[in-house]
Known about the structure:
Blueprint: H1 6-23, H2 25-40, E1 48-51, E2 56-63, E3 67-72, E4 77-81, H3 84-87, E5 91-92, H4 94-99, H5 120-127, H6 130-138, H7 146-160
Antiparallel strand pairs: 1-2, 1-5, 2-3, 3-4
Helix pairs in contact: 6-7
Amino acid sequence: MLNKLPIAFLTGLGALSAVLMLVFKDTILGFVTNVQVAALDLVRVGDWITIPSANVDGTVMDVSINTVKIRNFDKTISMIPTYTLTTHSVQNWRGMVETGGRRIKRSINIDIDTIKFCDQELLERLGKETLLADFIKAKANEKLTNISLFRAYIENYLRNHPKIHLGLTF
């Protein structure tokens, strides 16, 4: 071996390293990811996570060096490579769960042709509504639309609902 050129030894060592990296790629990436997950507290067993690119939305059951096992809310089990936690967008809902709150987002489709300015008769009738009275009085000098009244009604309804935690919403 001493009679060989060092370049031959280094070439062989490089080729061997490339083969080992290819064979142990997932294990090495998983190990590095596990260190990051532990150090940065990214994911814990029991966390609710969402990974859109992997079609995952559920609770973490197990984190090992190579895979993360997740029970989706439809009771299916997803196994993803551990390094997915650092290479893809992951949403961890732990903060929401710990606060005891829940965010609910809803969309309402509104036909633009139904949006109209309110006439005086409608404003007088809706002014008797407890949740709209203050809003209509405050905006008495403005031209109001039915959609602005609807928005004010929904916002006041949510502000006054006993099961809505105001510290987490407004």
